[in-house]
Amino acid sequence: MDRVKKLSSKLQAQGQKITKQRRAILEVLAESDKPLTAEEVYLLVRGRKENTSLTTVYRNLKKLLAAGLITREGFHDDKAQFQLLSDPHCHNLVCLNCRKVVKITECPLASFAKTVGEREGFTITEHRMELYGYCSDCLQRAKKE
Q1: Of 26-30, 76-80, 126-130, where does mean pLDDT reach its minimum?
Q2: Pairwise CA distance, residues 58 & 55, whole Å
Q3: Alpha-carbon distance 104 to 65, whole Å?
């Protein structure tokens, strides 16, 4: 079963309908290798010849978020980005200028999460970390300006 079918099944199990727009949004997010803004999702869905509006995209992103199928990342300029929740254990570097996302493959938090969880009486089931800054390309462009 492919990724979109699995997510659709989870959505149906929660009593949600799988509309054409919802499926298209899931497909767009599944095909993206980086988080997308609602506007980017909208343009990509429209590029598939799906009849939708930006309001519909926002409404569906909200439902997918509530269903626990996607994550929402906020930025300093209030442009939220969305991506599928494919790995509850992920770490990223995020460029504040171009929004490039680099996945960190090693886990710098494993022992810390275990220690804090034990100390506070929590069973840690997942954790995520995002480090914000500026990528080398953006820094180079800034030096030239």
Answers
A1: 76-80
A2: 5
A3: 23
**Mind listing the domains of the chain with CATH numbers?**
1-86 (1.10.10.10), 87-145 (3.30.1490.190)
* CA trace torsion 59, 60, 61, 62 (10° rounding): 50
pTM, 2 dp: 0.66
For the chain, the helix, strand and coil percentages under 3-state DSSP, each to the nearest 5: 45, 20, 35
Instruction: In whole angstroms, give the CA distance from residue 131 to residue 2.
Output: 31
State both tokens at 83. 């991506």
Residue 60 CB contacts under 8 Å (≥ 6 apart), including other chains: 19, 21, 22, 25
CA–CA gap between residue 58 and residue 50 (Å, rounded): 15
Q: Model confidence over 79-137: pLDDT tens digits?
A: 788 888 766 567 888 888 887 888 887 887 888 888 999 999 998 877 778 888 999 99
Q: How far is CA 12 from CA 59, 96, 133, 139, in A?
A: 17, 36, 38, 45
